[in-house]
Amino acid sequence: MAKKQQKNGGGINIMWMYVMIFAAILGLWMYRTDDGVSKEISWDEFRNAVNSGGVTKVTVYSDKKRADAEVNDSLAKVFFKGEKIDKNSHPAVVRVSIPSVDKAETMLSKAHDEGAFTGEVSYEDNSGFSNILWYFGPVVLLVLLWVFMMRRMGGGGASGGIFSVGKSKAQLFDGSNGERVTFNDVAGLAEAKVEIAEIVDFLKNPGTYTDLGGKIPKGALLVGPPGTGKTLLAKAVAGEADVPFFSLSGSDFVEMFVGVGASRVRDLFAQAKTKAPCIIFIDEIDAVGRARGKNPSFGGNDERENTLNQLLTEMDGFGSNSGIIVLAATNRADILDKALLRAGRFDRQIYVELPELNDRKEIFTVHLRGVKIDGSVDLDQLARQTPGFSGADIANVCNEAALIAARRKKQAVQRQDFLDAIDRIVGGLEKRSKVITNEERHSIAVHEAGHATVGWHLEYADPLIKVTIVPRGKALGAAWYQPEERQIEPRQAILDQICKLLAGRAAEDLFLGFTDTGALNDLERSTKLAYAMVTYYGMGESLPNISYYDSSSQEYGFTKPYSEERARAIDSEVQHIINEQYERAKTLLTRYSSGHHELAQLLQDREVIFAEDAERIFGPRQWRSRSDVIAEQEQTPPPFNPDEQ
């Protein structure tokens, strides 16, 4: 398809005009200042030089009361002592301030009559156009440069220049430009689609709701972690409703000039009124919607607050904005202003969560449309091995797997390529070139085997996938598990997780007789879990049913919400939990020490072991995984109920 011809392709670029003006002023300056070697002298010295016959040419400037005189070699040596003078290229010139043109003319005529001066005399008037350009050219150049900068900040020369700095930067998609996105292009997000589909129905059939006295919602806020598809979902709403769609970011309102943000908000809604019914989508609205009084700046007249005030007025003011629905997206809803979130502005908050198992399978299906895969790829297994991945993360996995397969010169992407891609994204790139001594290698194997051994015999521990002692990223060894996606966590599940985290350090203590720094990450995570049990979830034995969690994310400032005595009690309770689970891990390792030693030796020999190896050593796990139980429940038909007949 042929490319569209650019508009104004044959016009003169405004930059070339600035370059030519600058070059002309620079050339004039060089011409005016390239007068050779010059020196200021007094009127008496000038008169003596003329009478002595050393002056060869005089130029009198009537408007400046100044004269320039070229002198011969003998006078040049007097006036320019120690200076090198090349008379062939630059003459020696002396300058003098004359009392008046008449006195200079009289003096020169007298010297000429007496035969002392035989040179040429010329009179010039510097009040012409060249001097006007010389005096005012730099000022004009500065003005032109300032206008150019204002045009650039205003969004380009063709859109109004400096006068467009207060105009909205929103991009308009009305079906004639851009690719149309529908709900079919958005994988997963089933609950969010159902909730946001009502907005589409409002735009398609407003009369159905207004006839009954209902009012169309003014706004909806999409809240969720990064990469979950909030922007794509907003585009799908516009595509399904087939209405104009204004898209911009919250940072587009922020400018260095005072009042520009509020002006752009007014202009945005003015444009939207002409296109109603339509949708305004503001991505990352927290850039301007931060709660007033909590901005990081200390100014009383903050530009962001002015912009927010104007946005609040436009969304629910005296003016009528019927037919305009505002969609906004953020992953920091906790810092937004309360006035922005109230009913009548953003009537609904739609939570776009991280995809669950079935959603991840749908997302894999979408991103694998253009990827060549073979029969070894199991989407169910990929979805199970990517818990906590967002849609953007899954897209990255598919792309990374394709790159790995291409580097291996394969004709199609295989299952192992996807597993390697997940390992690389989660753990980092393998570093087989890192130098590790045999003692360190043995210590790492004992540590990782400790995690695997204890985790295999805990009820709530996540099922093991594989263990490796090949360095990845900053880790010298790692274990991969298939996390159980529970909606709620029982107390014992958290204790089992702490016990499994401490098992690596416990294995070193038991079987090596010393501990090292390799357990830093395990200790950090286990300590945070223990403090969360006591201070957030109220699961402490000596401090039950007390939570200091702040759901508003406003923190507690510089003071803690408890006394020093309570702080000591919290520390004591946390230490008790850590010690108890550490001893529990030691007990399990002692009981299954032979299996641990076999697993550690296998790790040193093969570097990587899988769940099949642990099952061969310890036998099948006593507890089934939660995902297997759910899968069986989904396949089992519901019991017969005669009341439903």
How is this fold's topology laid out?
Layout: H1 14-33, E1 37-41, H2 43-51, E2 55-61, E3 66-71, H3 73-79, E4 92-97, H4 101-113, E5 120-124, H5 129-153, E6 171-173, H6 190-204, H7 206-210, E7 219-223, H8 230-241, E8 245-249, H9 260-275, E9 278-283, H10 286-289, H11 303-315, E10 324-330, H12 338-341, E11 348-351, H13 357-367, H14 379-384, H15 391-407, H16 415-427, H17 438-456, E12 464-468, E13 478-481, H18 491-511, H19 520-535, H20 564-591, H21 593-606, E14 608-610, H22 611-618, H23 626-635
Parallel strand pairs: 1-4, 2-5, 7-10, 7-11, 8-9, 9-10
Antiparallel strand pairs: 2-3, 3-4, 6-8, 12-13, 12-14
Structure description:
- The protein is α/β, with parallel strands linked by helices and 645 residues long.
- The protein is 47% helix and 11% strand.
- The chain contains 23 helices and 14 strands.
- The protein has helices at residues 14-33, 43-51, 73-79, 101-113, 129-153, 190-204, 206-210, 230-241, 260-275, 286-289, 303-315, 338-341, 357-367, 379-384, 391-407, 415-427, 438-456, 491-511, 520-535, 564-591, 593-606, 611-618, 626-635, and strands at 37-41, 55-61, 66-71, 92-97, 120-124, 171-173, 219-223, 245-249, 278-283, 324-330, 348-351, 464-468, 478-481, 608-610.
- A six-stranded mixed sheet has the order 6-8-9-10-7-11. It has a five-stranded mixed sheet with strand order 1-4-3-2-5.
- Strand 2 (55-61) and strand 3 (66-71) form a beta hairpin.
- The protein is elongated.
- Residues 1-12, 155-163 and 639-645 have low confidence and may be disordered.
